[in-house]
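Q: My labmate handed me this sequence with no annotations at all. I'd like to see what the chain might look like in three dimensions before we decide whether it's worth expressing. Could you predict it?
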Amino acid sequence: MINSNKPLSLSKIQICAYSPDDKIANGYPLYEIFDDRHDFPLELTQSGIAVMLTFFNNRSAATRGPRGIRRAVSVSIIDDTESSVVASTTLRVNIPGNTDVKLYRADLPLAYANIDARHTYRVIVKDENSGAMLGATIFRMFDLCSLGKDPDKWYIPTAGGIVPEWSCDMYRAINVHGIESMKVKFELQPAFKSCPVIFPELEIRLYTPDGKTKINFISPDCVDFDMDEYSVEMPVLVGPDNSGIYYAELLCMEYPIAGMVFCTDCQTEEGYYFGDSLACMEEYSPASALDRFRSMMKTEETEGDKKDVDETEEDDDKDPFERALEEFISNELKDVSNELKALGLDEPQDDSTEETLTEENTDETNDNETSDESAPAEPEDIIRSSPRLCLDRLVGLKAVKEKLDVYEKIVLFNKLREENGLGTSPLPLHAMFLGSPGTGKTTVAKMMGFMLRKAGVLSKGHVVVKERSSLIGRYYGDEETNTRKALEEAQGGILLIDEAYQLYQPDDPRDPGKLVIESLMTALADESNRDWMLILAGYPEEMKLMFGMNPGLRSRIPDSNIYMFDDFSESELMEIAERYLQGKQYTLSCEAREALSRRLGDDYSRRDKSFGNARHVVNMIQTEILPAMAVRVISGNINDPQALSEIQACDIPKPTIIAGQPRRRIGYCA
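A: Here is what I predict for the chain of 670 residues:
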């Protein structure tokens, strides 16, 4: 049944930035130029934004006969960072009763002088008759002057391959018989002239054996602890009817970065492409792709024969960098942490962590003994990503960011004085992180470790996470041994003790946690060893009680090193959800966005001190929203890209209301 209150809906928004001399600025409507990209290069001649809107007439299928639509629709560009309107225009949408879909193009002025490349912008489309928002999408502008004039130099490709549905490893060729999907994967390192706050999206263009071209725009995911290795993946449906030779090309701002040829109807071959085998083809054609694949296979067969004759000689002649890269990919990549994948930075796993979050913002992990003892010092020409800018990408954490900004400046100030032969005062190193679960304490600790390592304060900068259960032994007296081992693991980096207040039990004088605290105090008193940092983390009130009752800790951790991780606000929780979904290539319908906002607002109002914050958001998406969407789509036998990516309001779980549960708002005092 048609909803008479919403006769018009918006199914797609596409954006294109242009200069006065561009083809799109001098032609209309040029539907074929628009695609699904959200990131654009910012040039000095930038003058406008063209928006292509695909409207749907909800009255065209009315039971009493089709009806037409005439609506006034506003199209606005909003600066999300400053919450201000940058430009706006109005369209007259007129769709006849016998027409379902109609495209309209809107052009809005947006000149170089009015754009801040550090900001995120949003296109919002509203029905002026009803005031309802029909749709919205974000876009970003990247300044070529600051990042480097050639976008094809912004990323360095290091590996490429295909990942079948039954594996997490990369392959150069597979036999798709019996499988339904695979992923095309590229790994790369950032190489910007100046690291942006948000990394620009990448495009994977896939040329299939049946003559089709598939395009996906993907934000790079961080896949390693030091935030200098990223990857992009494109899911692909496969079958016997489209098996054969594929060519996958990786692009940034339409500049080719890498390309690889692979086969899906031959013998499965584990491995990945790197070096010259990732070079872009000058011009794609099925014949040239086949020739390149045969050439690579012939080269590998020749090298294989040579290896059988003299394997030792081949190992000696092989490029040391390629050998090291191969060893790293095959051995280490299987075990890298996924914490930095949700907000583009980290991602919580199961019921205990996200990165994003998630590009971005989650915290504690189930593996409380995670460490990186062997974190080597990367060359400066490889390390391009600034931990401070990565921190700026995280949602919220305003108070933490401000304190760390001051702390970073003090560290750099002392470093400059030391380089100029001037004396420096010892920097208070140890800290306390106060906050609820999922507010980013572990994530910030990792960024702080990397920052201190680059500044020369710490030799490694890795983070070792421990808690009471991993420091208290089976027998009385094991605490000193376990604490000493933890300190040895953290040497050169950071020892983060999560829920540290559990070590302090004032009502039990024989509690073994007392021995852990005493061992830590002994290590803190050793002024000759300053190549490690202690961070005590936990709930604010409990930590403050422990801190107040222990003069030794108070003398080692000044107030300037106490960081307050506030709960995320309702709008910040919504931003975390949207960033996470965008990173996983999901979209929210207008109704779903409103339903999710209501649900998060209700959860926020009912939260207690154990509220999971970013972790709560990601767990809801992973365990409730996406399963509900999957059941709806599969039960309806729907198989089109929009249905597989757009979340509907019915997929959003309703609030869980417990009888007699009070609605309350709580907070924490600093």
